[in-house]
Amino acid sequence: MIVSPRLRRGTLLTLEGGEGSGKSSQAEALASLMRAQGYAVTLTREPNGTELGGIVKDVFQSARGGIAVTPEAELLLFAAARAQHVQEVIRPALERGEAVLCDRYTDSTLAYQGHGRGLSLDHIRAVNHIATGALPPQFTILLDVPPETGLARKDHERLGDSIGRESLEFHQRVREGYLELARREPKRIAVVDASLPREQVTEAAWRHLQRFLDHLL
Ligand code: TMP
Question: Model pTM?
Answer without folding.
Answer: 0.95
